Amino acid sequence: MASVPVSVLHSCRLVVVWAVLAMLPASPLWAQAQPDPPLVDSFRQWHDASGKLLTKSRLAYLDGDRIALWAESGQMLLIPQAQVSAADQSWIIAHPVKILRGKVIYVADGDTIGLLDADEKQHRIRLEGIDAPERGQAFGTKSRQALNDAAYGKDVIVAYEKPDQYGRILGHIYLNERWLNYDQLVSGMAWHYRHFSGDAYLAQAQKRAEAEKAGLWRDVSPLPPWRYRLAEKRQQEMKDSETAAKPMQPTGYWLNTSSGVRHNETCEHYGKTSRGKYCGAEDGKPCGMCGG
Question: Alpha helices, DSSP H only, in the chain?
Fold first, then answer.
């Protein structure tokens, strides 16, 4: 019987391996992956009582008996509620937005600030829809500096819906005619956080920054911050697993982690308990037989 060439056997093994891998369940990262939200125009048209177009605005909230509208031009318009259409009055009641006013007292990084309100209460604000480079990344320091130059010590308006899982307020920050979330993107100081934001206006800001090679887009291969954080996490997990895999070095003392009793190396229980670890001369309580 003729022998089968090694190269053919190798190819067959690869086919089998790939077939087995294909049948395995997806990794947790893939299994938990969610599709990006659809892009939507964040600017809404507003009409007066006769149906005539007043303006397009991405921020609208009730301010007493007036409606505050942040127009595409950057102007903040205050219009008596009675002067807008009935449909728009119903819409703003059905879509309430929380407003927080205060002074920026610190800038943690390119997408996070601290705000002090009129009651002297501090709030940590995460700029919604963007993700700035981490401090260890290229442009991490420049991103923070850009936001610091724009906002530190200034009175701002924060529009938000609710805090995130970390207790931070996820909001859009307005400083006079400027929308700082947008500014960070268009200057190339942050990424559009596409996985969590479907704001078409922010998506366009990133495309503009990319086309103009602004800020971080001057890099040959800019790395999204979320991938940088994931790589950092995996690297730390590898270090932790390597540390855990290293055998414990004898110290002359053994701690029974179940009872909390310390044994010295002359004791019959030294290194023999089912649960335990090497320890120092002051850890736990001394054994009644060997004195620990």
Answer: 6-23, 28-31, 86-94, 140-151, 180-186, 200-211, 225-245
